Fold this protein.
Amino acid sequence: MTSARRTAMVAGVLFLVTHVTSVVALALYKSALHDTSRISGSDTPLLVGAFLEVLLVLAIIGTGVALFPVVKRQNEGLALGYVGLRTLEAGVIAAGIVPLLVIVTLRQNPTEAASADAGVVGSALVAFHDWTFLIGPSFVCGTNTVLLAYLLYASGLVPRFIAALGLVGGPLVFASGAAQMFGLYEQISLWAALCAIPVFTWEICLAVHLVVRGFRSPAAAALDPAPVGAEAPPVAA
């Protein structure tokens, strides 16, 4: 297996990890935080959800690091921007984990929780998490999606229709985040879900293609330079 193929495989697996961890964590949080009027309930869904988001953060950074050596051959400046925005997205998500762990601490120390207005504290902590969920997966993710999609579209490393999904999905999820910020609809709503479909489809298609087929551009061959005097290996169509 060439280094280009390994890179594609790693990046694809990491993209799949981001989806599995984010979806499962969201489901756990939704069931655990359905009532913010009080700080009570089981700690397990929050702890498992927080742990999954830690894995999500690491996987997000991993996708940027894994793809950088490849996409920088198209445009190093944009590729560096992608890595930076991917890291920023991970940082925002990581910040959103902390208030949920604070809720766990308050649940384990009911005396401290009772000394304050539990409803206000619980609502504030959940709101903190929800805003980070909006900033990271909507605004920052929408922007870095456009950068990566453009790099892949211009280089031909993946089929053009996959890159086109990113070019459409990135701005759409960004616009959806703006609509949610100004109160046009809720974060967890039908409209938000519909606007997220293109970017979700883009990442799934990209991940599956990278795992199953790898990169398809002659640019990938540059990752495994042939020895001096040796004939370069043919690139699969």
